[in-house]
Amino acid sequence: MTAAASTSEDPGLWKTLTARPAVLVALVVFGAILAAAILAPWIAPADPARMSVRARLSPPLGDYIFGADAFGRDVLSRLLFAGRVSLSIGLGVAVLSTALGIVIGLAAGFFRRLDAPLSRLIDAMMAFPDILLAIALVAILGGSAANVVLALSIVYTPRIARIVRAATLVIRELPYVEAARALGSSNLSIMVWHVLPNIVSPITVQATFIFAYAMLAEAGLSFLGVGVDPSIPTWGTMVNEGRQYIDQALYLILFPGIAISLAVLSLQLIGDGLRDALDPRLAKDV
């Protein structure tokens, strides 16, 4: 059922995504950002850590295309390398929170005894504002890229877990699951081969949104000075470093701010497109 359906629907999914102009533009923009980050070591015009006192706060369009920061470092080079870190953190959070959310959601939805305690845990975690919970966790774990990924993964795991639990509660009562149970399949086998493949679509959509949320949250944590080590360039740390020079060098926060906005907005649009394409009830004629 699932393998044949997914194979036949792949062309339709791609066609639906590319048929919507906003989603197509978002795919192109995010693809360009991703390519620039991956190719940063080869396309960056200078070493992002190299300082030049004489070039301090040089304006854009001179010797430095995007200008130089307060230490004379090339802003464009730092922007490219910062993108690698910001995108890596966002992807890491999306993958880890999805994995944890699937495990918790499947357990809560499939095993009736675990449903109540795990559901209360999910509700309790979602009661806290994301950024406040992230700040508290980073303060406990310490400021590093790995700890930021872990903290944000804990924050966003309930989003996936809630979706997986709701879908599992419905699927576990369907006839083909009952048939698999009657044939002697184990609970683990049923969850892996019969439940999980049928909830991939909502998980994929939510993971895309979490990717965007995580990048925005990381930028917020870095701006507040409780995120990644300041010596590691991220878009958030670049905004934090440039805010004290906003009166004389607005470009120091303008360029990383634009990068954050474009990446997050494009991911949100891609997520919206995936949701409409994967859910027939939301599909629209374009």
Automatic annotation (TrEMBL):
Similarity section: Belongs to the binding-protein-dependent transport system permease family.
Span of domain ABC transmembrane type-1: 87-271
Subcellular location: Cell membrane
Taxon lineage: Bacteria, Pseudomonadati, Pseudomonadota, Alphaproteobacteria, Hyphomicrobiales
Membrane-spanning residues: 22-44, 87-111, 131-155, 208-228, 249-270
InterPro entries, A to Z: BP-dependent_transpt_permease (IPR050366), MetI-like (IPR000515), MetI-like_sf (IPR035906), OppC_N (IPR025966)
Membrane topology: Multi-pass membrane protein
Keywords: Cell membrane, Membrane, Peptide transport, Protein transport, Transmembrane, Transmembrane helix, Transport
Domain of life: Bacteria
Protein name (record): ABC transporter permease
